Amino acid sequence: MAPRDANWIDGLRGVASFMVVCGHLCTAFVPWLHSPANEPNTRPHLFQLPFFRLAVGGRSAVALFFLITGYVNSIGPIGKSRAGNTDAAFQGIARSALARSGRLVLPTMLATFISWFLANTGAYHMTKHVDSTWIRQGWHRQEPTMWAALKSLVRAEVETWTIGWDDYDGTQWTLHLFLEGSMLVYTTMLATILVKPKARFIIYAVLYFYFWQQGEGLAIGALKGLNIVTGMFVAELHNHFKDTATSTLPTPVPALLILLGLFLSSYPQDAQQNARWSHLMQRLMESVTVKDADVRRYWDHLGASTLLLGIFFSRTARNILTSPVFNFLGRVSFPVYLLHNTLMKSVLTWMVYLPSAMNPPRNEKGEQMDLRRGSTLHVVIAIGVFYYLLYKLASLWVQYVDPVCAKIVNAATRWAYGEGTAPAMQNGGPMMRKGSAEKGGVLPA
Protein backbone atom coordinates (compact mmCIF):
# COMPACT_ATOMS: atom_id res chain seq x y z
CA MET A 1 0.00 0.00 0.00
CA ALA A 2 1.27 3.44 -0.87
CA PRO A 3 2.60 5.33 2.18
CA ARG A 4 0.53 8.17 3.56
CA ASP A 5 1.26 10.53 6.40
CA ALA A 6 -0.65 9.82 9.60
CA ASN A 7 -3.30 12.45 10.21
CA TRP A 8 -5.94 12.58 12.91
CA ILE A 9 -8.61 13.70 10.46
CA ASP A 10 -7.88 10.61 8.35
CA GLY A 11 -8.29 8.44 11.42
CA LEU A 12 -11.62 10.09 12.16
CA ARG A 13 -12.72 9.45 8.58
CA GLY A 14 -11.84 5.79 9.04
CA VAL A 15 -13.95 5.60 12.20
CA ALA A 16 -16.88 7.21 10.38
CA SER A 17 -16.60 4.71 7.53
CA PHE A 18 -16.53 1.79 9.98
CA MET A 19 -19.60 3.18 11.78
CA VAL A 20 -21.54 3.42 8.52
CA VAL A 21 -20.95 -0.29 7.88
CA CYS A 22 -21.98 -1.12 11.45
CA GLY A 23 -25.16 0.91 11.02
CA HIS A 24 -26.13 -0.90 7.84
CA LEU A 25 -25.45 -4.30 9.41
CA CYS A 26 -27.68 -3.28 12.30
CA THR A 27 -30.42 -2.21 9.88
CA ALA A 28 -30.12 -5.51 8.03
CA PHE A 29 -30.14 -7.94 10.97
CA VAL A 30 -31.21 -6.18 14.19
CA PRO A 31 -33.21 -3.09 13.10
CA TRP A 32 -34.96 -2.94 16.48
CA LEU A 33 -31.69 -1.63 17.96
CA HIS A 34 -32.33 1.65 16.16
CA SER A 35 -35.01 2.34 18.80
CA PRO A 36 -34.12 3.40 22.37
CA ALA A 37 -36.42 0.63 23.65
CA ASN A 38 -38.75 -1.86 22.01
CA GLU A 39 -41.77 -0.42 23.81
CA PRO A 40 -42.25 2.65 26.05
CA ASN A 41 -42.60 0.47 29.15
CA THR A 42 -39.94 -2.15 28.39
CA ARG A 43 -36.36 -2.22 29.59
CA PRO A 44 -33.87 -1.27 26.85
CA HIS A 45 -31.22 -3.61 25.53
CA LEU A 46 -27.60 -2.67 26.29
CA PHE A 47 -27.01 -1.49 22.71
CA GLN A 48 -30.15 0.67 22.83
CA LEU A 49 -28.66 2.85 25.57
CA PRO A 50 -26.77 6.12 24.93
CA PHE A 51 -23.08 5.66 24.05
CA PHE A 52 -23.44 1.87 23.61
CA ARG A 53 -25.84 2.33 20.71
CA LEU A 54 -23.08 4.04 18.70
CA ALA A 55 -21.57 0.58 18.15
CA VAL A 56 -24.53 -0.27 15.88
CA GLY A 57 -25.52 3.16 14.59
CA GLY A 58 -24.12 4.99 11.59
CA ARG A 59 -26.21 8.12 11.09
CA SER A 60 -23.88 10.48 12.96
CA ALA A 61 -21.01 9.05 10.90
CA VAL A 62 -22.56 10.53 7.76
CA ALA A 63 -22.53 13.93 9.48
CA LEU A 64 -18.85 13.36 10.28
CA PHE A 65 -18.13 12.80 6.58
CA PHE A 66 -19.63 16.19 5.73
CA LEU A 67 -17.72 17.88 8.57
CA ILE A 68 -14.48 16.37 7.28
CA THR A 69 -15.34 17.49 3.73
CA GLY A 70 -15.75 21.08 4.91
CA TYR A 71 -12.57 20.92 6.99
CA VAL A 72 -10.24 19.29 4.46
CA ASN A 73 -11.34 21.28 1.41
CA SER A 74 -11.09 24.67 3.10
CA ILE A 75 -7.97 24.36 5.25
CA GLY A 76 -5.57 25.14 2.38
CA PRO A 77 -7.36 28.20 0.94
CA ILE A 78 -7.86 29.62 4.45
CA GLY A 79 -4.16 29.22 5.24
CA LYS A 80 -3.11 30.96 2.01
CA SER A 81 -5.66 33.73 2.59
CA ARG A 82 -4.39 34.39 6.10
CA ALA A 83 -0.82 34.48 4.77
CA GLY A 84 -1.83 37.07 2.17
CA ASN A 85 -1.02 34.69 -0.71
CA THR A 86 -4.35 35.24 -2.41
CA ASP A 87 -3.18 34.38 -5.93
CA ALA A 88 -2.08 30.92 -4.78
CA ALA A 89 -5.38 30.53 -2.94
CA PHE A 90 -7.43 31.33 -6.06
CA GLN A 91 -5.36 28.98 -8.18
CA GLY A 92 -5.62 26.23 -5.56
CA ILE A 93 -9.41 26.52 -5.48
CA ALA A 94 -9.61 26.38 -9.27
CA ARG A 95 -7.47 23.25 -9.43
CA SER A 96 -9.10 21.51 -6.48
CA ALA A 97 -12.65 22.08 -7.73
CA LEU A 98 -11.95 20.28 -10.99
CA ALA A 99 -9.82 17.48 -9.55
CA ARG A 100 -12.23 16.86 -6.65
CA SER A 101 -15.04 16.03 -9.07
CA GLY A 102 -12.98 13.41 -10.87
CA ARG A 103 -11.62 11.85 -7.70
CA LEU A 104 -15.14 11.41 -6.35
CA VAL A 105 -17.03 10.49 -9.52
CA LEU A 106 -14.62 8.05 -11.18
CA PRO A 107 -14.26 5.53 -8.29
CA THR A 108 -18.01 5.74 -7.65
CA MET A 109 -18.75 4.90 -11.28
CA LEU A 110 -16.44 1.90 -11.04
CA ALA A 111 -18.16 0.68 -7.86
CA THR A 112 -21.55 0.99 -9.58
CA PHE A 113 -20.21 -1.00 -12.53
CA ILE A 114 -19.11 -3.80 -10.19
CA SER A 115 -22.54 -3.93 -8.55
CA TRP A 116 -24.21 -3.86 -12.00
CA PHE A 117 -22.05 -6.76 -13.18
CA LEU A 118 -22.89 -8.85 -10.11
CA ALA A 119 -26.61 -8.12 -10.42
CA ASN A 120 -26.65 -9.13 -14.07
CA THR A 121 -24.73 -12.35 -13.48
CA GLY A 122 -27.18 -13.55 -10.82
CA ALA A 123 -25.07 -12.76 -7.78
CA TYR A 124 -28.00 -10.99 -6.08
CA HIS A 125 -30.55 -13.73 -6.76
CA MET A 126 -30.66 -14.93 -3.15
CA THR A 127 -31.12 -11.35 -1.92
CA LYS A 128 -34.74 -11.31 -3.15
CA HIS A 129 -35.76 -14.15 -0.83
CA VAL A 130 -34.10 -13.35 2.51
CA ASP A 131 -35.89 -12.41 5.75
CA SER A 132 -33.93 -9.14 6.08
CA THR A 133 -36.06 -6.29 4.74
CA TRP A 134 -33.10 -3.97 4.23
CA ILE A 135 -31.10 -6.51 2.21
CA ARG A 136 -34.19 -7.53 0.24
CA GLN A 137 -34.84 -3.91 -0.72
CA GLY A 138 -31.35 -3.79 -2.25
CA TRP A 139 -32.16 -6.57 -4.68
CA HIS A 140 -31.91 -5.77 -8.39
CA ARG A 141 -33.16 -8.05 -11.09
CA GLN A 142 -31.01 -9.59 -13.79
CA GLU A 143 -31.93 -7.68 -16.96
CA PRO A 144 -33.40 -9.85 -19.74
CA THR A 145 -31.14 -8.52 -22.52
CA MET A 146 -27.69 -7.00 -22.81
CA TRP A 147 -29.20 -3.81 -24.24
CA ALA A 148 -31.54 -3.46 -21.25
CA ALA A 149 -28.61 -4.11 -18.91
CA LEU A 150 -26.47 -1.44 -20.56
CA LYS A 151 -29.31 1.08 -20.41
CA SER A 152 -29.84 0.36 -16.72
CA LEU A 153 -26.11 0.84 -16.10
CA VAL A 154 -26.04 4.22 -17.85
CA ARG A 155 -29.17 5.29 -15.98
CA ALA A 156 -27.67 4.30 -12.63
CA GLU A 157 -24.37 6.06 -13.38
CA VAL A 158 -26.15 9.27 -14.32
CA GLU A 159 -28.87 9.30 -11.66
CA THR A 160 -26.31 8.92 -8.88
CA TRP A 161 -25.30 12.52 -9.62
CA THR A 162 -28.65 13.94 -10.75
CA ILE A 163 -31.44 12.63 -8.53
CA GLY A 164 -29.13 11.09 -5.92
CA TRP A 165 -30.22 7.48 -6.34
CA ASP A 166 -28.38 4.45 -7.72
CA ASP A 167 -30.55 1.41 -8.43
CA TYR A 168 -27.57 -0.88 -8.01
CA ASP A 169 -26.30 0.63 -4.76
CA GLY A 170 -28.72 2.69 -2.70
CA THR A 171 -26.02 3.64 -0.18
CA GLN A 172 -24.50 5.98 -2.78
CA TRP A 173 -27.33 8.47 -2.24
CA THR A 174 -25.01 10.73 -0.20
CA LEU A 175 -22.26 11.04 -2.81
CA HIS A 176 -23.85 13.78 -4.90
CA LEU A 177 -24.33 15.70 -1.65
CA PHE A 178 -20.62 15.31 -0.88
CA LEU A 179 -19.83 16.75 -4.31
CA GLU A 180 -22.27 19.61 -3.76
CA GLY A 181 -20.76 20.15 -0.32
CA SER A 182 -17.28 20.43 -1.82
CA MET A 183 -18.53 23.00 -4.29
CA LEU A 184 -20.15 24.91 -1.42
CA VAL A 185 -16.73 25.03 0.22
CA TYR A 186 -15.00 26.25 -2.94
CA THR A 187 -17.68 28.87 -3.60
CA THR A 188 -17.46 30.16 -0.04
CA MET A 189 -13.68 30.24 -0.15
CA LEU A 190 -13.73 32.01 -3.51
CA ALA A 191 -16.03 34.67 -2.08
CA THR A 192 -14.05 35.16 1.15
CA ILE A 193 -10.38 34.82 0.20
CA LEU A 194 -9.90 38.59 0.29
CA VAL A 195 -11.71 39.20 3.58
CA LYS A 196 -10.12 39.23 7.01
CA PRO A 197 -10.64 36.23 9.34
CA LYS A 198 -13.09 38.04 11.64
CA ALA A 199 -15.31 38.84 8.68
CA ARG A 200 -15.16 35.22 7.57
CA PHE A 201 -16.36 34.09 11.01
CA ILE A 202 -19.40 36.34 10.59
CA ILE A 203 -20.04 34.83 7.16
CA TYR A 204 -19.90 31.33 8.68
CA ALA A 205 -22.50 32.39 11.26
CA VAL A 206 -24.84 33.76 8.58
CA LEU A 207 -24.51 30.58 6.51
CA TYR A 208 -25.09 28.45 9.61
CA PHE A 209 -28.36 30.15 10.49
CA TYR A 210 -29.43 30.01 6.84
CA PHE A 211 -28.99 26.24 6.69
CA TRP A 212 -30.52 25.77 10.15
CA GLN A 213 -33.90 26.91 8.89
CA GLN A 214 -33.78 24.58 5.85
CA GLY A 215 -35.21 21.69 7.79
CA GLU A 216 -38.06 20.17 5.81
CA GLY A 217 -38.09 16.60 4.51
CA LEU A 218 -34.63 15.01 4.46
CA ALA A 219 -33.22 18.20 5.97
CA ILE A 220 -30.49 18.78 3.40
CA GLY A 221 -29.67 21.93 5.32
CA ALA A 222 -28.97 19.99 8.50
CA LEU A 223 -27.26 17.09 6.77
CA LYS A 224 -25.11 18.98 4.29
CA GLY A 225 -25.08 22.70 4.94
CA LEU A 226 -24.64 22.83 8.72
CA ASN A 227 -21.88 20.24 8.71
CA ILE A 228 -20.01 21.77 5.78
CA VAL A 229 -20.08 25.23 7.38
CA THR A 230 -18.97 23.84 10.74
CA GLY A 231 -16.13 22.00 9.01
CA MET A 232 -14.95 25.29 7.48
CA PHE A 233 -15.21 26.92 10.91
CA VAL A 234 -12.95 24.26 12.46
CA ALA A 235 -10.49 24.71 9.57
CA GLU A 236 -10.44 28.41 10.44
CA LEU A 237 -9.67 27.48 14.05
CA HIS A 238 -6.85 25.24 12.81
CA ASN A 239 -5.24 28.11 10.94
CA HIS A 240 -5.76 30.43 13.91
CA PHE A 241 -4.35 28.22 16.68
CA LYS A 242 -1.98 26.12 14.55
CA ASP A 243 0.18 23.93 16.83
CA THR A 244 -1.21 25.44 20.04
CA ALA A 245 -4.77 24.10 19.58
CA THR A 246 -4.26 21.07 21.81
CA SER A 247 -2.99 23.23 24.68
CA THR A 248 -5.58 26.00 24.39
CA LEU A 249 -8.34 24.58 26.61
CA PRO A 250 -8.01 23.08 30.11
CA THR A 251 -7.45 19.32 29.87
CA PRO A 252 -10.94 18.22 31.05
CA VAL A 253 -12.80 20.42 28.53
CA PRO A 254 -11.96 18.51 25.33
CA ALA A 255 -12.80 15.22 27.07
CA LEU A 256 -16.16 16.64 28.18
CA LEU A 257 -16.83 17.87 24.64
CA ILE A 258 -16.09 14.39 23.27
CA LEU A 259 -18.42 12.77 25.82
CA LEU A 260 -21.16 15.31 25.09
CA GLY A 261 -20.74 14.76 21.36
CA LEU A 262 -21.03 10.98 21.79
CA PHE A 263 -24.20 11.41 23.85
CA LEU A 264 -25.83 13.75 21.35
CA SER A 265 -24.85 11.37 18.54
CA SER A 266 -26.72 8.62 20.40
CA TYR A 267 -30.08 10.12 19.46
CA PRO A 268 -32.01 7.13 18.08
CA GLN A 269 -33.12 6.71 14.50
CA ASP A 270 -36.57 5.27 15.29
CA ALA A 271 -39.26 5.38 17.98
CA GLN A 272 -37.72 8.23 19.97
CA GLN A 273 -40.82 8.32 22.18
CA ASN A 274 -40.01 4.89 23.63
CA ALA A 275 -37.46 6.32 26.08
CA ARG A 276 -37.69 9.42 28.23
CA TRP A 277 -34.22 10.75 27.38
CA SER A 278 -34.73 10.57 23.61
CA HIS A 279 -38.30 11.90 23.82
CA LEU A 280 -37.04 14.96 25.72
CA MET A 281 -34.36 15.50 23.06
CA GLN A 282 -37.00 15.21 20.34
CA ARG A 283 -39.28 17.79 21.95
CA LEU A 284 -36.36 20.16 22.59
CA MET A 285 -35.20 20.08 18.96
CA GLU A 286 -38.72 20.45 17.62
CA SER A 287 -39.02 23.68 19.62
CA VAL A 288 -36.02 25.29 17.88
CA THR A 289 -36.41 24.01 14.32
CA VAL A 290 -38.89 24.72 11.54
CA LYS A 291 -42.07 22.73 11.06
CA ASP A 292 -41.67 19.17 9.75
CA ALA A 293 -37.91 19.25 10.26
CA ASP A 294 -36.10 15.91 10.48
CA VAL A 295 -34.81 16.49 14.01
CA ARG A 296 -32.64 13.36 13.78
CA ARG A 297 -30.35 15.12 11.31
CA TYR A 298 -29.98 18.08 13.65
CA TRP A 299 -28.92 15.89 16.57
CA ASP A 300 -26.57 13.99 14.26
CA HIS A 301 -25.02 17.31 13.28
CA LEU A 302 -24.71 18.69 16.82
CA GLY A 303 -23.28 15.42 18.12
CA ALA A 304 -20.73 15.01 15.34
CA SER A 305 -19.73 18.71 15.48
CA THR A 306 -19.23 18.66 19.24
CA LEU A 307 -17.20 15.47 18.90
CA LEU A 308 -15.03 17.05 16.18
CA LEU A 309 -14.36 20.12 18.33
CA GLY A 310 -13.42 17.95 21.30
CA ILE A 311 -10.97 15.95 19.18
CA PHE A 312 -9.58 19.12 17.62
CA PHE A 313 -8.61 20.50 21.05
CA SER A 314 -7.48 17.15 22.52
CA ARG A 315 -3.88 15.97 22.16
CA THR A 316 -4.76 12.50 23.46
CA ALA A 317 -7.61 12.00 20.99
CA ARG A 318 -5.42 13.15 18.10
CA ASN A 319 -2.65 10.76 19.13
CA ILE A 320 -5.10 7.86 19.20
CA LEU A 321 -6.47 8.74 15.76
CA THR A 322 -2.97 8.88 14.27
CA SER A 323 -2.08 5.37 15.48
CA PRO A 324 -1.37 2.73 12.78
CA VAL A 325 -4.79 1.09 13.13
CA PHE A 326 -6.74 4.30 12.64
CA ASN A 327 -4.35 5.46 9.95
CA PHE A 328 -5.15 2.24 8.04
CA LEU A 329 -8.90 2.73 8.56
CA GLY A 330 -8.56 6.25 7.16
CA ARG A 331 -6.63 5.14 4.08
CA VAL A 332 -9.27 2.62 3.07
CA SER A 333 -12.35 4.57 4.20
CA PHE A 334 -13.66 5.55 0.76
CA PRO A 335 -13.44 2.08 -0.88
CA VAL A 336 -15.00 0.62 2.28
CA TYR A 337 -17.91 3.01 1.81
CA LEU A 338 -18.18 2.13 -1.89
CA LEU A 339 -17.91 -1.65 -1.58
CA HIS A 340 -19.66 -2.60 1.65
CA ASN A 341 -23.22 -2.70 0.31
CA THR A 342 -22.19 -4.79 -2.70
CA LEU A 343 -20.50 -7.32 -0.41
CA MET A 344 -23.48 -7.36 1.95
CA LYS A 345 -25.85 -8.24 -0.89
CA SER A 346 -23.56 -10.95 -2.23
CA VAL A 347 -20.91 -12.58 -0.05
CA LEU A 348 -22.51 -11.84 3.34
CA THR A 349 -25.96 -12.89 2.13
CA TRP A 350 -24.54 -16.15 0.75
CA MET A 351 -22.79 -16.93 4.02
CA VAL A 352 -25.76 -16.10 6.25
CA TYR A 353 -28.53 -17.68 4.18
CA LEU A 354 -26.87 -20.54 2.27
CA PRO A 355 -27.94 -23.29 4.74
CA SER A 356 -31.55 -22.15 4.43
CA ALA A 357 -31.26 -21.85 0.64
CA MET A 358 -30.15 -25.47 0.41
CA ASN A 359 -33.44 -26.50 2.06
CA PRO A 360 -35.85 -23.58 1.49
CA PRO A 361 -38.67 -23.29 4.06
CA ARG A 362 -42.21 -23.68 2.73
CA ASN A 363 -45.64 -22.93 4.16
CA GLU A 364 -48.59 -25.28 4.41
CA LYS A 365 -49.49 -24.67 0.76
CA GLY A 366 -46.01 -25.64 -0.37
CA GLU A 367 -45.08 -22.05 -1.27
CA GLN A 368 -41.50 -21.02 -0.61
CA MET A 369 -41.07 -18.68 2.33
CA ASP A 370 -38.28 -16.18 3.02
CA LEU A 371 -34.90 -17.73 3.65
CA ARG A 372 -33.95 -17.76 7.30
CA ARG A 373 -30.57 -16.78 8.69
CA GLY A 374 -28.51 -19.23 10.66
CA SER A 375 -27.89 -19.20 14.41
CA THR A 376 -26.49 -16.15 16.18
CA LEU A 377 -23.04 -17.76 16.22
CA HIS A 378 -23.34 -18.51 12.50
CA VAL A 379 -24.24 -14.87 11.74
CA VAL A 380 -21.44 -13.50 13.95
CA ILE A 381 -18.84 -15.67 12.19
CA ALA A 382 -20.21 -14.63 8.79
CA ILE A 383 -19.98 -10.95 9.75
CA GLY A 384 -16.38 -11.46 10.91
CA VAL A 385 -15.45 -13.01 7.56
CA PHE A 386 -17.35 -10.21 5.79
CA TYR A 387 -15.33 -7.53 7.60
CA TYR A 388 -12.06 -9.26 6.75
CA LEU A 389 -12.96 -9.50 3.05
CA LEU A 390 -14.26 -5.93 2.98
CA TYR A 391 -11.10 -4.38 4.39
CA LYS A 392 -8.86 -6.70 2.39
CA LEU A 393 -10.59 -5.68 -0.85
CA ALA A 394 -10.53 -2.02 0.22
CA SER A 395 -6.77 -2.31 0.84
CA LEU A 396 -6.29 -3.81 -2.63
CA TRP A 397 -8.47 -1.04 -4.08
CA VAL A 398 -6.21 1.61 -2.54
CA GLN A 399 -3.13 -0.22 -3.80
CA TYR A 400 -4.21 -0.89 -7.38
CA VAL A 401 -7.41 0.98 -8.31
CA ASP A 402 -6.86 4.38 -6.70
CA PRO A 403 -3.53 5.02 -8.50
CA VAL A 404 -5.16 4.30 -11.87
CA CYS A 405 -8.07 6.63 -11.09
CA ALA A 406 -5.61 9.30 -9.93
CA LYS A 407 -3.60 9.02 -13.16
CA ILE A 408 -6.75 9.40 -15.25
CA VAL A 409 -7.93 12.42 -13.26
CA ASN A 410 -4.48 14.03 -13.33
CA ALA A 411 -4.17 13.51 -17.08
CA ALA A 412 -7.62 14.99 -17.65
CA THR A 413 -6.94 18.02 -15.46
CA ARG A 414 -3.54 18.64 -17.06
CA TRP A 415 -5.22 18.58 -20.46
CA ALA A 416 -7.97 20.93 -19.21
CA TYR A 417 -5.39 23.37 -17.82
CA GLY A 418 -3.40 23.22 -21.06
CA GLU A 419 -0.24 22.25 -19.21
CA GLY A 420 2.64 21.45 -21.49
CA THR A 421 1.05 23.30 -24.42
CA ALA A 422 0.39 26.76 -23.03
CA PRO A 423 3.09 27.74 -20.53
CA ALA A 424 1.48 31.11 -19.87
CA MET A 425 -1.63 29.47 -18.47
CA GLN A 426 0.41 27.29 -16.09
CA ASN A 427 1.23 30.37 -14.09
CA GLY A 428 -2.39 31.37 -13.81
CA GLY A 429 -2.81 33.32 -17.05
CA PRO A 430 -2.24 37.03 -17.69
CA MET A 431 -4.60 38.24 -14.97
CA MET A 432 -3.03 36.05 -12.28
CA ARG A 433 0.52 36.97 -13.33
CA LYS A 434 -0.38 40.64 -13.21
CA GLY A 435 -1.62 40.27 -9.64
CA SER A 436 1.57 38.49 -8.64
CA ALA A 437 3.76 41.12 -10.25
CA GLU A 438 1.96 43.87 -8.42
CA LYS A 439 2.77 42.15 -5.14
CA GLY A 440 6.34 41.57 -6.18
CA GLY A 441 5.98 37.81 -5.75
CA VAL A 442 6.12 34.74 -7.94
CA LEU A 443 3.19 32.34 -8.02
CA PRO A 444 4.30 28.84 -7.01
CA ALA A 445 4.08 26.01 -9.52
Short synopsis of the structure:
This protein has 445 residues and is mainly alpha-helical. It has 17 helices and no strands. The chain has one domain (8-345, 386-439).
What sequence of helices (H) and strands (E) makes up the elements? HHHHHHHHHHHHHHHHH
Shape: globular
Low-confidence stretches: 1-5, 421-445
Assign the structural class, choosing from mainly alpha, mainly beta, alpha/beta, alpha+beta, or little secondary structure: mainly alpha
Determine the oligomeric state from the structure.
single chain
Describe this protein's structure.
The protein has one domain (8-345, 386-439). It has helices spanning 8-29, 59-82, 86-119, 133-137, 146-162, 175-192, 197-212, 220-241, 252-265, 276-286, 295-312, 315-321, 324-331, 333-358, 376-417, 423-426, 429-439. 41% of the residues are buried. It has 17 helices and no strands. The chain crosses the membrane at residues 12-32, 52-72, 104-124, 173-195, 207-229, 249-267, 375-394. Pfam families: Acyl_transf_3. One of its GO terms (molecular function) is acyltransferase activity, transferring groups other than amino-acyl groups. InterPro entries: Acyl_transf_3_dom, Acyltransferase_3.
